[in-house]
Amino acid sequence: MDNKEFAKKLEYRTRQFGISIIKLSSSLPNTIEGKVIRNQITKSGTSVGANYREANRSRSKRDFKNKIKISESEASETEYWLEIIHDLKWVELDSLSLIVKEAKELLALFTSISNKL
């Protein structure tokens, strides 16, 4: 698989991740605390793909690296919020495990890409 094909597949994957985060966030409790975490995880979870898309349209290698680092950071933050949701037992743990796995994989991918730049 060449870089262009890899980038297209990863853009799709991060978009699907964002959609799964939005669906998850809509199932969180309708409390003040639930709304805060809903807002935080929705922003970080959708930002992973948005910044990766921007990286692929960057004007320079420096700009690309900066956007990749942002995607990495947002993936890490999303993983943190998923851990909070898990620890609070706010959603079915079986359904959460797939999203957590994907968050970890995306974080590993962006960390690897970042380290190669």
Summarize the structure.
By secondary structure, the chain is an all-alpha fold.
Structural features, described:
- The chain is mostly helical and 117 residues long.
- It has one domain (3-116): de novo design (two linked rop proteins) (Up-down Bundle), CATH 1.20.1440.60.
- Helix content is 86%, strand content 0%.
- It is built from 4 helices and no strands.
- The protein has helices at 3-26, 32-56, 61-88, 93-116.
- Helix 1 runs antiparallel to helix 2 (32-56) and helix 2 packs antiparallel against helix 3 (61-88).
- It is elongated.
- The mean pLDDT is 96.
Looking at CATH, the homologous superfamily is: 23S rRNA-intervening sequence
In round numbers, the mean pLDDT is: 96
Count of structural domains: 1
What structural class do the secondary elements suggest? mainly alpha
Helix content percent band: over 70%
Largest sheet: none
How much strand? under 5%
Tell me the CATH topology.
Answer: de novo design (two linked rop proteins)
Question: Quick one: overall form?
Answer: elongated
Radius of gyration based on Cα positions:
15 Å
Taken in chain order, the helices and strands follow as HHHH
- Report, as a whole number of angstroms, the end-to-end distance: 19 Å
Low-confidence stretches: none
The count of β-strands is 0
Instruction: Assign the CATH architecture.
Output: Up-down Bundle
CATH class: Mainly Alpha
The helix count comes to: 4
